[in-house]
């Protein structure tokens, strides 16, 4: 009775025989997957709390006669500290788990925002009215949690040391070069239609963000992995590829923030969060699969269950954000952690710094 499971476990842990992943360079550790997933979930939860704390600070100042600026309040600084702590957790998670696992876990931030939003609403509801108003949010949270469980359970389990040699090898591999060619052509076409033809459709703008973001997550994992190896004593900072990746990470994040700012001026933040999460997650997972070969050696069942987890999480996020209303006293941040391909870049749009009408789009925290 015990031989079959042990044999299956041994087969599951056999390294793939691939020229891209020679035996000895790739390890298989569910422990590392778990550490990365827990760091990502913790980071997204803390960032959601931080963003809502900061928004609560803005709204409280807007509704009072307090002349202080928001950055002079303890609440705002507490939010900033928690945000940095959460972002550090998400950043570190890329060094432990495959990119394809970490990216879709940003759905946790949407779940947290939905729950925090309900808690902060001060209106009194009858149970029947409350359920009717928030039934989509509850269903969406349930689906997102189920999707997250499937993602963690059936995620790719290959772990390659992020050394300068390995990253350089992946960078010049023909699958990634072909992927980059397709992405550059698509990006240029979308940019042409957006700038020259005034194609302001949200899909066009968020596809630009997602394409840039796919490069951001690839570089974030490389930078995080090389930093962790350096801290462990295997110095990687003397490799030029580290600085190439770092510059690409910052540059793509800045341009994503610019496009995202333009999108936020034309579309509702809830729509941006749901559409952006779906597009960004899909393209980022594709980039990780091509660059880091995340799914090499995975059996068809695990890949199908992982894809099912993504689809369920997509549906959950869509239902949560679809239920978002503007005309409520406290509309929680829909953190752009829901768009998993953006670097830490908290920029305040200052549309209504001390006015009554808050739309939930004054500030975004953007992470990859």
TrEMBL record:
Q: Could you tell me one molecular function GO term of this UniProt entry?
A: magnesium ion transmembrane transporter activity
Report TM segments. Answer: 34-54, 75-96, 102-121, 133-152, 172-194, 201-229, 241-259, 271-293, 299-320
Indicate where this protein resides in the cell.
Membrane
Query: According to Swiss-Prot or TrEMBL, what is its membrane topology?
Result: Multi-pass membrane protein
Q: Which UniProt keywords apply?
A: Membrane, Transmembrane, Transmembrane helix
Entry keyword annotation includes Transmembrane helix: yes
**A single Pfam family, by name?**
Mg_trans_NIPA
Q: Which GO terms describe its cellular component?
A: membrane
Q: Which PANTHER family match?
A: NIPA-LIKE PROTEIN 3, PTHR12570
Family under the similarity heading:
Belongs to the NIPA family.
Question: In its UniProt entry, what is this protein called?
Answer: NIPA like domain containing 3
What species is given as this protein's source?
A: Canis lupus familiaris
Q: Which gene encodes it?
A: NIPAL3
């Amino acid at each position: 009775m015990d031989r079959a499971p042990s044999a299956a476990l041994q087969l599951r842990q056999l390294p793939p025989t691939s020229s891209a992943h020679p035996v000895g360079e790739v390890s298989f550790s569910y422990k590392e997957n778990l550490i990365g997933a827990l760091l990502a979930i913790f980071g997204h939860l803390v960032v959601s709390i931080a963003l809502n704390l900061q928004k609560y600070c803005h709204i409280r100042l807007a509704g009072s006669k307090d002349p202080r600026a928001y950055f002079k309040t303890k609440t705002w600084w507490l939010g900033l500290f928690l945000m940095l702590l959460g972002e550090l957790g998400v950043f570190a998670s890329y060094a432990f788990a495959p990119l394809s696992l970490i990216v879709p876990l940003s759905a946790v931030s949407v779940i947290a925002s939905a729950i925090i939003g309900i808690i902060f609403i001060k209106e009194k509801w009858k149970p029947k009215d409350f359920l009717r108003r928030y039934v989509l949010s509850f269903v969406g949270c349930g689906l997102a949690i189920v999707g997250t469980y499937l993602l963690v359970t059936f995620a790719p389990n290959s772990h390659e040391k992020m050394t300068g040699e390995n990253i350089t090898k992946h960078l010049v591999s023909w699958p990634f070069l072909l992927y980059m060619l397709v992405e550059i052509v698509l990006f240029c076409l979308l940019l042409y239609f957006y700038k020259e033809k005034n194609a302001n459709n949200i899909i066009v703008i968020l596809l630009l963000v997602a394409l840039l973001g796919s490069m951001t997550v690839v570089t974030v994992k490389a930078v995080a992995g090389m930093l962790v190896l350096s801290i462990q004593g295997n110095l990687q900072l003397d490799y030029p590829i580290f600085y190439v990746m770092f510059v690409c990470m910052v540059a793509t994040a800045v341009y994503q923030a610019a496009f995202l700012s333009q999108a936020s001026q034309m579309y509702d933040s809830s729509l941006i969060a749901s559409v952006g999460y779906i597009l960004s997650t899909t393209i980022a997972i594709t980039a990780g699969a091509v660059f880091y070969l995340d799914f090499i050696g995975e059996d068809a069942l695990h890949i199908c269950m992982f894809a099912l987890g993504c689809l369920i999480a997509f549906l959950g996020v869509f239902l949560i954000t679809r239920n978002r209303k503007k005309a409520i006293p406290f509309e929680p941040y829909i953190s752009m952690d829901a768009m998993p391909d953006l670097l830490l870049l908290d920029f305040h749009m200052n549309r209504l710094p001390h006015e009554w009408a808050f739309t939930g789009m004054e500030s975004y925290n953007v992470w990859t």
